[in-house]
Write a structure and sequence with these properties.
Length: 356
């Protein structure tokens, strides 16, 4: 979906969050992609907070364990493509007058100075011109811009180097996630992606090879489990089992679980509506389409909550489906299953970046 320049050196994807490290290593075989290896390593509480590394030595051990304990083929390259938390990133599509590509870099600097509360010397940034559709004459340049603070990136560079890894690219989570879930189709209608993680949820709206809206939401797997534990008067471990085993119980209004989670999920639906309206009011012209959001795709570990897609579909009046990050990837026996793969969506998108 996002046509960045190809990487000549083989590399694996490594998704770093506050709570886990996920690795995905893909190889191209028979005209398709094959999942050669993957791993997941939990990060102890306090090692990373809001994207900031707090304990480099312990994080270094965790990264080393994640690389060492890959299931499948062992990692044989130091090259990696790394995601950094959405909370510390900036991503935006900007419109520029038609100009030569060599002039775009200078124009982007002016846009960054106008939109980011940091000096250019304090950030790393990159950009990509979004190709126009064949049936839509190009009246201006649409450029996808991503930026990250150096004070965030540099510590990751340091710890990865000490782990004897060589990051070729740092990529924003939502871009990698969209690549994994949306096929390479420039006429694709706008899609809202909801990545429900352990401690936070990321929302992104993607269209025509670009991410136009990103946001972090407070709802998470942990918050839903905590809510169940509180409302049903049970320990968190039992609440976690209830959530996994019973889900939303077919949206039964009389169910204790459904009643406990309904207010939080209704609030989630309302936030989705608000961001959808923002996209419709401010981004449709930039996206080069007259269509509003066509569907919602769920990923992340929280997407496995039984009944969630049906509940959101009912509340939003939109098609809501669980994403399929492995749809175009072959997996060996005893490898990632469809449900477990949802938690690896970003890592898989990073690994696919190696073949873009």
């Amino acid at each position: 979906m996002f046509d960045f320049p190809s990487i000549k050196n083989p590399a694996f994807g490594i998704d770093l969050s506050d709570w886990s490290i996920k690795i995905a290593n893909l190889k191209k075989r028979g005209g398709g992609f094959f999942l050669a290896g993957f791993s997941r390593q939990e990060i102890k509480e306090g090692l990373i907070e809001e994207g900031q590394i707090k304990n480099e030595a312990e994080l270094l051990k965790t990264i080393a364990a994640a690389v060492k304990n890959v299931q499948g083929e062992k990692i044989r390259t130091r090259n990696c493509i790394v995601s950094l938390p959405e909370t510390v990133s900036f991503v935006q599509v900007v419109n520029l007058p038609l100009m030569e590509e060599a002039e775009v870099a200078e124009a982007i600097k002016w846009e960054l100075e106008a939109h980011i509360p940091l000096q250019l010397g304090e950030i790393y940034f990159d950009w990509q011109i979004i190709p126009s559709s064949l049936d839509c004459p190009q009246k201006n340049l649409r450029v996808l811009v991503g930026a990250l603070p150096k004070k965030t990136v540099d510590p990751y560079l340091s710890v990865l180097a000490k782990a004897e890894l060589k990051p070729l690219i740092f990529e924003i989570e939502s871009v990698a996630t969209a690549r994994a879930l949306i096929k390479n189709n420039p006429s694709e209608d706008p899609v809202l992606i909801l990545d429900l993680g352990a401690k936070r949820t990321s929302l992104a709206i993607a269209s025509d090879r670009a991410v136009f809206v990103t946001a972090g939401l407070s709802i998470s797997n942990s918050s839903l489990i905590g809510l169940l534990a509180e409302k049903l008067g049970m320990p968190p471990d039992q609440a976690r089992r209830f959530k996994i085993e019973r889900g939303l119980e077919n949206l039964d209004e009389g169910s204790q679980i459904f009643q406990a989670l309904k207010p939080a999920l209704a609030n989630l639906a309302e936030q989705i509506k608000n961001y959808s309206e923002f996209y419709q009011e401010h981004c449709l012209t930039e996206a080069g389409t007259k269509n509003n959001i066509s569907r919602v795709l769920l990923c992340g570990g929280g997407a496995n909550l039984a009944g969630l897609a049906e509940f959101l579909s009912r509340e939003l009046g939109l098609e809501v489906k669980t994403g399929q990050p492995l749809e175009n990837i072959k997996t060996p026996k005893n490898s990632l299953g469809p449900e477990e793969a949802l938690a690896f969506t970003t890592a898989l998108g990073l690994a696919l970046r190696n073949f873009s």
